[in-house]
Amino acid sequence: MTAAGTPVQPRRKGLTRRQKRSVSRGVQYVVFVAVVIAFAVSADWGRLKNQFAQGDIARQMFPDVITLALKNTVLYTLSGFVVGLVLGMVIALMRLSSVGPYRWFAGVYIEIFRGLPALLIFIFIGVAVPLAFPGTEIVGGTYGKVALALGLVAAAYMAETIRAGIQAVPKGQMEAARSLGFSPARAMVSIIVPQAFRIILPPLTNELVLLFKDSSLVLFLGVTLEERELSKYGRDLASTTANSTPILVAGLCYLLVTIPLGFVVRRMEAKAQEAVK
Q: Does the pTM of the predicted model rise above 0.70?
Protein backbone atom coordinates (compact mmCIF):
# COMPACT_ATOMS: atom_id res chain seq x y z
CA MET A 1 0.00 0.00 0.00
CA THR A 2 1.04 3.60 -0.59
CA ALA A 3 1.49 6.15 2.15
CA ALA A 4 -2.05 7.37 1.50
CA GLY A 5 -3.42 3.90 2.10
CA THR A 6 -4.24 3.15 -1.60
CA PRO A 7 -3.47 -0.44 -2.55
CA VAL A 8 -0.77 -0.86 -5.16
CA GLN A 9 -1.93 -2.73 -8.28
CA PRO A 10 0.40 -5.59 -9.10
CA ARG A 11 2.19 -5.29 -12.40
CA ARG A 12 1.09 -7.67 -15.13
CA LYS A 13 3.70 -10.12 -16.22
CA GLY A 14 4.03 -11.25 -19.84
CA LEU A 15 2.24 -10.06 -22.96
CA THR A 16 -1.32 -8.88 -23.28
CA ARG A 17 -3.79 -10.76 -25.48
CA ARG A 18 -3.43 -8.20 -28.24
CA GLN A 19 0.34 -8.46 -28.12
CA LYS A 20 0.12 -12.25 -28.22
CA ARG A 21 -2.11 -12.10 -31.28
CA SER A 22 0.31 -9.72 -32.98
CA VAL A 23 3.26 -11.98 -32.24
CA SER A 24 1.34 -15.06 -33.44
CA ARG A 25 0.37 -13.31 -36.65
CA GLY A 26 3.96 -12.19 -37.21
CA VAL A 27 5.24 -15.74 -36.71
CA GLN A 28 2.69 -17.03 -39.23
CA TYR A 29 3.82 -14.46 -41.79
CA VAL A 30 7.46 -15.38 -41.27
CA VAL A 31 6.73 -19.12 -41.64
CA PHE A 32 4.68 -18.50 -44.78
CA VAL A 33 7.39 -16.37 -46.39
CA ALA A 34 10.03 -18.94 -45.42
CA VAL A 35 8.04 -21.76 -47.04
CA VAL A 36 7.56 -19.74 -50.23
CA ILE A 37 11.26 -18.88 -50.40
CA ALA A 38 12.26 -22.50 -49.76
CA PHE A 39 9.94 -23.66 -52.54
CA ALA A 40 11.24 -21.02 -54.95
CA VAL A 41 14.87 -21.86 -54.21
CA SER A 42 14.48 -25.65 -54.36
CA ALA A 43 12.40 -25.78 -57.57
CA ASP A 44 14.19 -26.44 -60.86
CA TRP A 45 12.75 -23.52 -62.81
CA GLY A 46 14.79 -24.33 -65.89
CA ARG A 47 13.21 -27.74 -66.33
CA LEU A 48 9.76 -26.35 -65.57
CA LYS A 49 10.23 -23.67 -68.22
CA ASN A 50 11.35 -26.22 -70.81
CA GLN A 51 8.35 -28.43 -70.15
CA PHE A 52 5.58 -25.89 -69.48
CA ALA A 53 6.60 -22.53 -70.90
CA GLN A 54 7.82 -22.85 -74.46
CA GLY A 55 6.88 -19.60 -76.14
CA ASP A 56 7.03 -20.93 -79.70
CA ILE A 57 4.61 -23.76 -78.87
CA ALA A 58 2.26 -21.37 -77.07
CA ARG A 59 2.20 -19.01 -80.07
CA GLN A 60 1.26 -21.89 -82.38
CA MET A 61 -1.93 -22.40 -80.35
CA PHE A 62 -3.35 -19.01 -81.29
CA PRO A 63 -5.90 -18.13 -82.44
CA ASP A 64 -7.40 -21.67 -82.42
CA VAL A 65 -7.21 -21.98 -78.64
CA ILE A 66 -9.58 -19.00 -78.43
CA THR A 67 -11.69 -19.22 -81.58
CA LEU A 68 -12.15 -23.00 -81.36
CA ALA A 69 -11.37 -24.53 -77.96
CA LEU A 70 -12.50 -21.69 -75.68
CA LYS A 71 -15.53 -21.00 -77.87
CA ASN A 72 -16.64 -24.63 -77.67
CA THR A 73 -16.07 -24.70 -73.91
CA VAL A 74 -18.25 -21.62 -73.44
CA LEU A 75 -20.97 -23.03 -75.72
CA TYR A 76 -20.98 -26.37 -73.88
CA THR A 77 -21.16 -24.58 -70.54
CA LEU A 78 -23.96 -22.18 -71.47
CA SER A 79 -26.07 -24.89 -73.10
CA GLY A 80 -25.67 -27.15 -70.07
CA PHE A 81 -26.49 -24.26 -67.74
CA VAL A 82 -29.71 -23.44 -69.61
CA VAL A 83 -30.85 -27.08 -69.60
CA GLY A 84 -29.92 -27.42 -65.93
CA LEU A 85 -31.71 -24.21 -64.99
CA VAL A 86 -34.96 -25.16 -66.74
CA LEU A 87 -34.91 -28.72 -65.43
CA GLY A 88 -33.82 -27.56 -61.99
CA MET A 89 -36.77 -25.16 -61.80
CA VAL A 90 -39.18 -27.99 -62.66
CA ILE A 91 -37.59 -30.33 -60.09
CA ALA A 92 -37.63 -27.60 -57.42
CA LEU A 93 -41.35 -26.93 -57.96
CA MET A 94 -42.04 -30.67 -57.85
CA ARG A 95 -40.05 -30.84 -54.61
CA LEU A 96 -42.34 -28.18 -53.12
CA SER A 97 -45.52 -29.66 -54.56
CA SER A 98 -48.32 -30.93 -52.34
CA VAL A 99 -48.64 -33.97 -54.63
CA GLY A 100 -46.74 -36.85 -53.04
CA PRO A 101 -45.47 -38.62 -56.20
CA TYR A 102 -44.02 -35.34 -57.49
CA ARG A 103 -42.08 -34.82 -54.26
CA TRP A 104 -40.85 -38.41 -54.25
CA PHE A 105 -39.69 -38.26 -57.87
CA ALA A 106 -37.89 -34.96 -57.27
CA GLY A 107 -36.22 -36.29 -54.14
CA VAL A 108 -35.02 -39.46 -55.86
CA TYR A 109 -33.74 -37.48 -58.86
CA ILE A 110 -31.79 -35.08 -56.66
CA GLU A 111 -30.22 -37.83 -54.57
CA ILE A 112 -29.20 -39.89 -57.61
CA PHE A 113 -27.78 -37.16 -59.84
CA ARG A 114 -26.18 -35.30 -56.96
CA GLY A 115 -24.50 -38.49 -55.76
CA LEU A 116 -23.22 -39.84 -59.10
CA PRO A 117 -19.95 -38.47 -60.55
CA ALA A 118 -20.46 -36.33 -63.63
CA LEU A 119 -18.16 -38.70 -65.54
CA LEU A 120 -20.68 -41.53 -65.20
CA ILE A 121 -23.46 -39.29 -66.52
CA PHE A 122 -21.40 -38.49 -69.62
CA ILE A 123 -20.68 -42.18 -70.20
CA PHE A 124 -24.37 -42.96 -69.72
CA ILE A 125 -25.40 -40.35 -72.31
CA GLY A 126 -22.69 -41.38 -74.78
CA VAL A 127 -22.96 -45.18 -74.44
CA ALA A 128 -26.08 -46.34 -72.59
CA VAL A 129 -28.62 -44.15 -74.40
CA PRO A 130 -27.62 -45.31 -77.94
CA LEU A 131 -27.68 -48.92 -76.73
CA ALA A 132 -31.07 -48.58 -75.08
CA PHE A 133 -32.64 -46.67 -77.98
CA PRO A 134 -31.01 -47.84 -81.25
CA GLY A 135 -31.21 -45.31 -84.03
CA THR A 136 -32.09 -42.48 -81.65
CA GLU A 137 -30.10 -39.28 -82.14
CA ILE A 138 -29.97 -36.52 -79.55
CA VAL A 139 -30.78 -33.17 -81.13
CA GLY A 140 -27.68 -31.07 -81.65
CA GLY A 141 -25.18 -33.89 -81.94
CA THR A 142 -22.25 -33.54 -79.56
CA TYR A 143 -23.44 -30.13 -78.39
CA GLY A 144 -26.83 -31.62 -77.52
CA LYS A 145 -25.25 -34.55 -75.67
CA VAL A 146 -23.02 -32.25 -73.63
CA ALA A 147 -25.93 -29.93 -72.86
CA LEU A 148 -28.02 -32.88 -71.69
CA ALA A 149 -25.23 -34.45 -69.61
CA LEU A 150 -24.22 -31.19 -67.94
CA GLY A 151 -27.86 -30.19 -67.52
CA LEU A 152 -28.79 -33.45 -65.78
CA VAL A 153 -25.96 -32.99 -63.29
CA ALA A 154 -26.50 -29.27 -62.75
CA ALA A 155 -30.27 -29.62 -62.35
CA ALA A 156 -29.88 -31.67 -59.16
CA TYR A 157 -27.86 -28.90 -57.50
CA MET A 158 -29.86 -26.04 -58.99
CA ALA A 159 -33.13 -27.62 -57.87
CA GLU A 160 -32.05 -27.52 -54.23
CA THR A 161 -30.73 -23.98 -54.64
CA ILE A 162 -33.97 -22.79 -56.24
CA ARG A 163 -36.06 -24.57 -53.62
CA ALA A 164 -34.12 -22.88 -50.83
CA GLY A 165 -34.55 -19.51 -52.56
CA ILE A 166 -38.31 -19.97 -52.92
CA GLN A 167 -38.65 -20.95 -49.28
CA ALA A 168 -36.58 -17.91 -48.27
CA VAL A 169 -39.21 -15.56 -49.73
CA PRO A 170 -41.56 -14.46 -46.91
CA LYS A 171 -44.85 -16.36 -46.91
CA GLY A 172 -46.68 -13.04 -46.76
CA GLN A 173 -45.74 -12.45 -50.39
CA MET A 174 -47.84 -15.41 -51.52
CA GLU A 175 -50.70 -14.41 -49.22
CA ALA A 176 -50.65 -10.86 -50.56
CA ALA A 177 -50.68 -12.11 -54.16
CA ARG A 178 -53.57 -14.45 -53.42
CA SER A 179 -55.52 -11.61 -51.83
CA LEU A 180 -55.12 -9.64 -55.06
CA GLY A 181 -56.74 -12.45 -57.03
CA PHE A 182 -53.62 -14.22 -58.30
CA SER A 183 -53.87 -17.97 -58.79
CA PRO A 184 -51.21 -20.02 -56.94
CA ALA A 185 -49.36 -20.75 -60.21
CA ARG A 186 -49.41 -17.14 -61.37
CA ALA A 187 -48.35 -15.89 -57.94
CA MET A 188 -45.43 -18.33 -57.96
CA VAL A 189 -44.28 -17.32 -61.45
CA SER A 190 -44.89 -13.56 -61.17
CA ILE A 191 -44.14 -12.83 -57.50
CA ILE A 192 -42.25 -15.59 -55.70
CA VAL A 193 -39.81 -16.88 -58.33
CA PRO A 194 -38.41 -13.43 -59.32
CA GLN A 195 -37.70 -12.65 -55.67
CA ALA A 196 -36.17 -16.09 -55.17
CA PHE A 197 -33.80 -15.59 -58.12
CA ARG A 198 -32.48 -12.37 -56.62
CA ILE A 199 -31.57 -14.39 -53.54
CA ILE A 200 -29.99 -17.35 -55.33
CA LEU A 201 -28.16 -15.49 -58.09
CA PRO A 202 -24.71 -15.82 -56.43
CA PRO A 203 -24.88 -19.62 -55.95
CA LEU A 204 -26.25 -20.03 -59.48
CA THR A 205 -23.30 -18.09 -60.83
CA ASN A 206 -21.01 -20.31 -58.80
CA GLU A 207 -22.69 -23.33 -60.40
CA LEU A 208 -21.86 -21.82 -63.79
CA VAL A 209 -18.18 -21.82 -62.82
CA LEU A 210 -18.37 -25.49 -61.83
CA LEU A 211 -20.06 -26.38 -65.12
CA PHE A 212 -17.36 -24.54 -67.03
CA LYS A 213 -14.77 -26.90 -65.56
CA ASP A 214 -16.96 -30.02 -65.89
CA SER A 215 -17.25 -29.36 -69.63
CA SER A 216 -13.81 -31.00 -69.94
CA LEU A 217 -15.59 -34.37 -69.63
CA VAL A 218 -16.85 -33.99 -73.19
CA LEU A 219 -13.91 -36.09 -74.38
CA PHE A 220 -15.74 -39.21 -73.13
CA LEU A 221 -18.44 -38.59 -75.73
CA GLY A 222 -15.97 -38.74 -78.60
CA VAL A 223 -15.50 -35.43 -80.38
CA THR A 224 -14.17 -34.32 -83.73
CA LEU A 225 -11.31 -31.88 -84.15
CA GLU A 226 -13.78 -29.02 -84.56
CA GLU A 227 -15.69 -30.00 -81.39
CA ARG A 228 -12.75 -30.07 -78.99
CA GLU A 229 -12.88 -27.99 -75.84
CA LEU A 230 -9.94 -26.55 -73.91
CA SER A 231 -8.78 -29.68 -72.06
CA LYS A 232 -9.03 -31.97 -75.07
CA TYR A 233 -7.37 -29.35 -77.30
CA GLY A 234 -4.50 -28.91 -74.83
CA ARG A 235 -3.94 -32.65 -74.36
CA ASP A 236 -3.92 -33.32 -78.08
CA LEU A 237 -1.29 -30.66 -78.71
CA ALA A 238 0.72 -31.80 -75.69
CA SER A 239 0.87 -35.30 -77.20
CA THR A 240 1.81 -33.93 -80.62
CA THR A 241 4.56 -31.64 -79.36
CA ALA A 242 5.75 -33.90 -76.49
CA ASN A 243 5.53 -30.82 -74.30
CA SER A 244 3.12 -29.67 -71.57
CA THR A 245 2.97 -26.02 -72.63
CA PRO A 246 -0.44 -26.48 -74.34
CA ILE A 247 -1.90 -27.78 -71.08
CA LEU A 248 -0.66 -24.69 -69.24
CA VAL A 249 -2.10 -22.38 -71.90
CA ALA A 250 -5.44 -24.21 -71.71
CA GLY A 251 -5.42 -23.80 -67.93
CA LEU A 252 -4.79 -20.06 -68.28
CA CYS A 253 -7.77 -19.84 -70.65
CA TYR A 254 -9.94 -21.43 -67.98
CA LEU A 255 -8.75 -18.79 -65.53
CA LEU A 256 -9.63 -16.03 -68.00
CA VAL A 257 -13.27 -17.00 -67.47
CA THR A 258 -13.41 -18.41 -63.93
CA ILE A 259 -11.57 -15.54 -62.18
CA PRO A 260 -13.92 -12.79 -63.49
CA LEU A 261 -16.93 -15.00 -62.70
CA GLY A 262 -15.59 -15.58 -59.19
CA PHE A 263 -15.21 -11.83 -58.74
CA VAL A 264 -18.80 -11.32 -59.88
CA VAL A 265 -20.00 -13.94 -57.37
CA ARG A 266 -18.18 -12.22 -54.50
CA ARG A 267 -19.60 -8.84 -55.48
CA MET A 268 -23.13 -10.22 -55.62
CA GLU A 269 -22.72 -11.93 -52.26
CA ALA A 270 -21.43 -8.70 -50.73
CA LYS A 271 -24.39 -6.75 -52.11
CA ALA A 272 -26.79 -9.40 -50.83
CA GLN A 273 -25.29 -9.13 -47.34
CA GLU A 274 -25.52 -5.34 -47.43
CA ALA A 275 -29.18 -5.60 -48.44
CA VAL A 276 -29.87 -7.89 -45.47
CA LYS A 277 -28.23 -5.41 -43.09
A: yes
